[in-house]
Design brief:
Blueprint: H1 13-31, H2 34-73, H3 81-110, H4 115-132, H5 134-148, E1 157-160, E2 163-170, E3 174-178, E4 184-188, E5 196-197, E6 203-212, H6 217-227, H7 231-234, E7 243-250, E8 254-263, H8 268-310
Antiparallel strand pairs: 1-2, 1-5, 2-3, 3-4, 6-8, 7-8
Length: 311
């Protein structure tokens, strides 16, 4: 068997030197290519201009939206001002997303990236996502109609299902509620089937005051009206003077006097507490006055009795 030998060839130094010189020349020619640098310079300038124009367009459109919403809000038609805030923010977000998307496409075209295949791929991907994310599409459509129909706005107190709180954020996909205890509820818009809005109209505070059966109705009504005198100045949430409707229910030992008061939205609980506090103070003062009068009369009778017995 013949021994196997590796072919050993020594590299030609001249060829190696020529290859290095050729590579260096090509690199230098690319670096010294004036046309290439002009193209890079003009592309950079165009990229900067596109970015600046996009920012300017977003700012101008946002200001136009703000002025339009302010002009609509100052009109003669009475509407919820929070609706304009919500719609304005949504329109500004949509404008920002659209302008930034167009800017990205222009920037990609500036660096010689073919945008057509990307758009076609995005369309196919969007179609696939649409079939697979029907819940997301439902959330977006429901959120759009919530804002369009003015069902509720940012700052409103609403209840949907078992959740009740103040609307902090209305998005196209979710709505964020903050309860009075500080709990934050994030609800998908597609699950909102019915909504109770407590901020669209004035509330009605209803207070039932139990009275002792031996106290006359006229005296009770007089005391309650005296307690409610000037309450609209003490509590600015009360729209007008509360009405004393009369007896709501009664039993052998007591009867209940009902009071109703129209108040601003979301202030029913505080107004009811204010009415109860004022009536309670008046009844306590009346009870203390009667007790003091009885004690004074008893003391006077005692003194008169002692005087007669001593005589």
């Amino acid at each position: 068997m013949l021994p196997f030998k590796f072919a050993t060839t020594s590299p030609d130094p001249q060829k190696t030197i020529k290859g290095a010189i050729r590579w260096t020349d090509e690199l230098w020619n690319k670096i010294a290519d004036a046309d290439m640098w002009f193209n890079i310079l003009f592309s950079s300038i165009r990229i900067i201009i596109i970015f600046i124009i996009t920012r300017i367009v977003i700012k101008i459109v946002s200001r136009i939206i703000d002025r339009t919403m302010a002009r609509k809000q100052e009109g003669k038609i009475r509407v919820n001002p929070r609706r304009f805030i919500t719609v304005g923010e949504l329109m500004k977000n949509a404008t920002s997303i659209t302008c930034n998307f167009i800017m990205i496409l222009l920037l990609l075209s500036e660096i010689n990236v073919k945008v057509g295949p990307l758009l076609a791929s995005a369309g196919v991907l969007g179609l696939a996502i649409g079939f697979g994310a029907q819940g997301l599409v439902k959330d977006v459509i429901t959120g759009f109609f919530i804002i369009l129909e003015d069902q509720f706005a940012v700052g409103d107190v609403i209840q949907t299902g078992t959740y009740k709180g103040t609307v902090e954020v209305i998005g196209l996909r979710t709505t964020k509620l903050v309860s009075w205890q500080g709990e934050v509820h994030i609800i998908p818009n597609g699950t909102i089937a019915s909504v109770t809005n407590y901020s669209m109209s004035n509330s009605l505070a209803v207070v039932d005051i139990p009275m002792k059966g031996e106290q006359t109705l006229d005296e009770s009504v007089h005391l309650v009206k005296r307690a409610l005198t000037g309450i609209e100045d003490r509590d600015l949430n009360i729209v007008k003077v509360p009405d004393v409707l009369g007896i709501q229910s009664m039993s052998t030992s007591e009867y209940v006097v009902r009071i109703v008061a129209e108040c601003l939205p979301n202030s029913r609980a505080s107004v009811e507490r204010q009415i109860q506090s004022d009536v309670k103070k008046t009844l306590e003062y009346h009870e203390m006055s009667n007790q003091a009068a009885l004690e004074q009369a008893a003391a006077q009778e005692k003194d008169e009795g002692d005087g007669i017995g001593g005589a």
